[in-house]
Design goal:
- The structure is a single chain.
- It is built from 9 helices and 10 strands.
- By secondary structure, it is an alpha/beta fold.
- It has a single domain, classed as Divalent-metal-dependent TIM barrel enzymes (TIM Barrel).
- The longest helix has 21 residues, at 86-106.
- It is globular and about 45 Å long.
- The protein binds zinc ion (2 copies).
Length: 293
Amino acid sequence: MTAIPGRKPAMGAHVSIAGGVATAPERGVRIGADVVQIFSKHGQRWEGKPIEPDDVHGFRAETERTGVRTVAVHCAYLINLASAKEDVRTRSLYALEDEASRAALLGIPHLVMHPGSPGDDPEEEGIARIVSALKAFGKFPAGVSLLLENTAGQGASLGKTMEQLRRMLDGAGNPPDVAVCLDSAHLFEAGHDLSNADHWAEFKDNLDRTGILPLVRMWHINDSKTGFASRVDRHEHIGRGQVGIEAFRRIVNDPVFRELPLILETPKDGADEYEMDLVNLASLRALVGTSPD
Ligand SMILES: [Zn+2]
Ligand SMILES: [Zn+2]
């Protein structure tokens, strides 16, 4: 069950850090993961306990012992760089800075963030605010890059199309330390049927045309409880939702994505926190090397 170095594609899940960040790699071992993602603090709070030198040592030692790489920190959901409220934008910028320095301390390469929502304000204004926040932020700490995640487009949330992500990146001057994380549930909920061969080809063209393809650094690999183009974000276990197993078969087998880590963010509703991650990873691994319909 220990991580197999070099296995492609590398797969794993978002895991808890209850008991400290140093517990994350062992949680990865328990689910047979190659890679994991964590929150470095509570996902729904602005403040987090500082990361102490002991946490850093413990985390690095456990990473070494288990071979499970923590490839990403998911930012707290409160961060909203597109908010209509200036105080929220300011807090968000400080929070992003904090997240980035925590990731740097732990040696975690990616910081995943939802671009944000302008509420009732026009999309353009939201994008302009994200752009100015990214410009104000400047450079990320060495070894850390920000990944803008595509969204389901729930409410006014930005990032539901590749074109929107492109506009944010262009506006910010295409910083070398800002890239993209794709979420399979969000894509489906935003109107991409990746289980269909034609739509898959169309989606890849879209990634190519917008120049997003070379910026994709990881996948959140989730099924969706809600329907096609529902714009409602509800994750489901692999193969039990509406995305369609062929979509997952394409993602795990496409040579273009082979080097990218795949992270589950599916419910932990089994007998314990590990059960369903084990089931979902087994479902995904069973697809590797098989050919689409
Ligand atoms: Zn996600
Ligand atoms: Zn989601």
